[in-house]
Amino acid sequence: MKIIITSSFLIVSFFAFSQSKKGMESKPFSTKDKSVVVYTTAENSSLRLSKTDNLVFRELKQPTERQVCVFVNPLKTFQTFLGIGGAISDASAEVFAKLSKNKQEELLNAYYSTDKGIGYSLMRTNINSCDFSSGSYTYIDEGDKSLKTFNIEHDKKYRIPMIKRALATAGGKTTLYVSPWTPPAFMKSNNNLLQGGSLLTEYYQPWATYYSKFIKAYEKEGIPIWGLTVQNEPMAVQTWESCIYTAEEERDFLKNYLGPTLAKEGLGDKKIIVWDHNRDLMNQRANIVFSDPEASKYAWGMGFHWYETWAGGKPMFDNVGKVHEAYPSKNLIFTEGCVEKFDAAKYQFWANGARYGTSMINDFNNGTVAWTDWNILLDENGGPNHVGNFCFAPIHGDTTTGELIYTPSYYYIGHFSKFIRPNAKRVSTVVSRDTLLSTSFINSNGKMVTVVMNQSKEKVVYNLCIGTQAAEVSILPNAIQTLVY
């Protein structure tokens, strides 16, 4: 009798556990009783993240060759989404301070509110000065090897107040990481904050400690730091703040100094990002750093920019996929991109926005988990920038009129950031015509988000296909849509 009772108990327990486990599993995605809400931004129209349609799914067992389709397969999911955002640089904060109180609130809501704006969930800022600062500076007295004079008083005037307000607007749910453009001049081979140079070996330890001091100082101000990049653009000798690291130098600095120092200082949970430069050389950097077990253990992933087109070629999206293929355990994050060479006559130049859409779709489809624009705000001159490297931002603040100028880039980014939320999973998405680009994510609340971009000058009618169900959608020329269902 005892054996029977025990057996029965085991059977009941196993059944209960199985039911509990089933309840914990997410239900497979279904189109049943779901509508497709369509949001559109299009050239030569007034549509800007505008709700343009509410569609239903119908049966479509076999598309014909003449039917244009976007095939979404919810059974195939990939990387987990971290966020989308931009950088609060010195320039952004200085322009922000010149705006009226009402315009400041408008800007913060435009970026960081999910209801009133595009819901940024990611942020970057600079350690020491960068080109988008009004002048060069560090946080120590020149020559202070012991870092006794370290302080962040400079940042308390403009940048820290703006970051705090942005975090508050986002409900404290924004992921912030930091990047240095240069060590202090005395630590470098050229004894200059600008024009490249490299970190002298005798200053590897003080410079590693510098990062920890910066992180702790910001966190003391109530600004949580999620992670950091080792060096902004480590292969570019710039007229502004810059510092060169070969792949081997970055590897050795990471494994022997930066990684161990952060761990020793109680900051071992901070995510360290290597490279932080263009797609062209990212594979070589990955091979050198990630193939070294001691360096690799400190590297959360790799950051990259989009400026490889300076040489006259096209964006090298495949390189991102190749790194992901070779090192699938490492995360990929787009750390900077902006439209170069500011020209006020091109505020509404549509190709600038399309550049964002093209890059974001391709980068996400190649395994990228997060995407960061450069300055979130610049003035009517594309600055301030202390070396004249003036660029575009998604929003400009005209300090002569006090008005905010929204560019197409703002709306293109918004088609992703407003609807794809942190912890979403990318979903397999394929288009049947190269006039369209598309990517999809499923949010943790079960809502599917598909972004479709029309690269052609013609209106396109396409089918959003999930299995044998499809919704017929129309997209205007040079337009981008977000489909939520």
UniProtKB/TrEMBL annotation:
One MF annotation (Gene Ontology) recorded for this entry: glucosylceramidase activity
Secretion signal span: 1-18
A GO-annotated cellular component: membrane
TM regions (residue ranges): none
Entry protein name: Glucosylceramidase
Family: Belongs to the glycosyl hydrolase 30 family.
Ranges where the Glycosyl hydrolase family 30 TIM-barrel domain occurs: 83-420
Record GO biological process: glucosylceramide catabolic process
Keyword Signal attached: yes
Domain Glycosyl hydrolase family 30 beta sandwich: 423-483
Keywords: Glycosidase, Hydrolase, Signal
Keyword Signal carried by entry: yes
